Structures are given as C-alpha cells and as structure tokens.
Amino acid sequence: MDPTGRRLSRARLPEGVAGIARLHAMIGEHLGEDADEAEAVIGIETDRGPWVQALIAAGYRVFAVNPLSVARFRERHSVSGAKSDTADAHTLADMVRTDSHQLRPVAGDTAATEAVKVVSRAHKTLIWERTRHMNRLRHALRDYFPAALEAFDDLAAADTLELLDKAPDPASAAQLTITQISAALKRARRRSISDRAAAIQATLRTEQLGQPEVVTAAYAATTRAATAVLSTINEQINALQGQVEAHFGQHPAAEVLLSQPGLGSIAGARVLGEFGDDPRRYTSAKCRKNYAGTSPITRQSGKKKTVMTRYVHNDRLLDALAVQAFSALQASPGARAYYDKLRARDIGHRAALRQLANRLVGILHGCLKNRALYDEATAWSHHLEHAAA
Fold this sequence. Notes:
By secondary structure, the protein is mainly alpha-helical. The protein contains 18 helices and 4 strands.
C-alpha cells in the first residue's frame, strides 16, 4: 500500500527464506530509483519469530499490533463481522500507514535479553505444567486412594513420587515398611525422618473407601505414569533453573535488577526478559507501569468515573512482579511501610500488593534509566518519614 492508501500488490507468501525473498522483491518493484531514500513500514500481529527478526534485520520499521486492536480497527470500515486473511492484511497495512504514530515498533532488545527470555519462559512453563499434572494426580488419588492425600502434603516432592511409584495402590502402600519410607525421606533430605515415616505408615494403613480391584489396578497404572512425568518435569525444572541463572548472570543489567528488593536470579530474569532492555521502549515510568499491568485504568463518562484493575496484561510479567512485591515486604522497610499504609485504608491484600508492585516498577525504571543500584532511603524517603511519625 502506498502513502495514499492505494494497494500496490498482494500475495500470499510462503514460510522461510523464499517468503522473505518474495517480499523484498515485491517491495523493490515499487520503490524504483528512490529505494535508498524510501522507507517501508510493516505491520504484523506478533513481536517474535524468525519472520520478525528477518524483517528488522532487513531495515524495515516493524510494528507489532495487538490482534484485539486490529479487530477494533477493522470495525471502522465494516461491522458485518466478516474476517479473512486478505482483509486483515489490508487492515494492518492501513493501520501502519495512518496510525503509526500511535503504535509501538518492535523493541530492539539485545540477543542476551532474548536468551534470558527464552529460558525463563520455558522454566516458568514447566512449573505451570507441573502444577497441572499434580492436580490431575490429586484428582485420581481422591477417587481411589484418599489416604495418600493425607499422608503426603506435597505430591510433587521427590519422596512422595518415589513412594507412589513403589506403592501406587492402597494394598501395596499398606505393606511399606518404616525402613523403605525412611530411605525415601532421607534421599529427599527431609527432617524428622523417624517421626515423619511413622506418621506416613500409620496414615497409609488406615481404613478407607476404595474401588474394585480391577479399577484400582487401572488407577495404579495411571499413577505410575503421572509420577514418572512429574519426576521428569522436576529434573528439567532444575536443569533450566541453572540455565536461567547462567544467562541472567551474564547480562549487564543483572546487577541493577538484583539490587531491587524481592528480586532474585529467577524472578529478576523473568522481569528482564518480559520488559526487555531496549532503552527507547519505555519513554517514562508510566509507560513501563502500563505495560506491566500494575497501573489502574480510568473509565469516565459525564459524572461517572470508575478506576479499575487492568485485565489485559502480560501474565508472566505480572506474576513475577507479584512475587517481587510479596518478597519485598520482608526485604524492604519502605515497601512494608507503604503496604501497611494501604492496608490501614481498608485496601485488600491483593490490591495493596498490586499497588506496591506498581511502585516497585517505577523504582526499577528509574534505576535502569540512570544505571543506578537500588537505594532504600532514596526510594522510600517520604514513606519512611511518614511511618516514623
């Protein structure tokens, strides 16, 4: 599409190098002799992947447009609800032609940050997958082996998985000896092994409601499969944790992030990967807060005004910031004083944590912008004075 909105050409491009080459050829046909001075602007509904990286490397200005924004823009010209790839391509081209000043170009994050983002996302995804498999295992045990739920408080723990794999049904679990249970607890580095082993054995030998023998055998087979999956996930989580710490430790911004209250290597890597390190991406602390989803939104019409939580946000980033805010209550007196001040105004725990996270994002923005380490007195001076008074 040219600057006047006239469509110059249209094609469905294949994946890979052939598609990129065809796109370059299509654009080159219309640039002509002014190719060195002309600029090609591209709209696409994602900010990652080989295509995006290839477009940026070729020198195009690439805007990653949220699909929800594309849908709203489409309704400016048609309210019938019709949708097609061709129409979406036309809408994206029209958006970057007329509204590029309202859109955000793809951030120019460094390769080191992209590597941190890849491993930290994979690490968090495995943790979520472990929770899903653990819930499925809990649901199965409730149906045929409820005593196991009383005996084991953590279904993803190494000792629990070992004992469930060895005795996945009530009959075999009742035959476990103190020596076998103690050995599993010792390998898992538990404390108070003798008392805990005796309590587990007593619980497993209590009377309980069960299923027919053939059904129990079927459940036992699924339990063995679930424990094998959980054991593998645990191993890979530990392996990826080492990768996260290694990549994050090599990043230049790691020292600034680790100086923030409540941020360790894992949470810091997640925050860095989701925020990115492009210094031009966030023009102010408010922009960073808006992207984080910690700042509220205001809806006002006439005399009606409502302040609401942002429900459209980066789930991974907000999760990491919530972890930071909760940990900062113990690590930072200023954060604790700010939280207590909010709670004194009858603000709920989660809402107070969200406001604390919003404040911490602003502090992080200032530290990254000035390349300065966190300083408790500078960050919370007025809140500390208020708490002392």
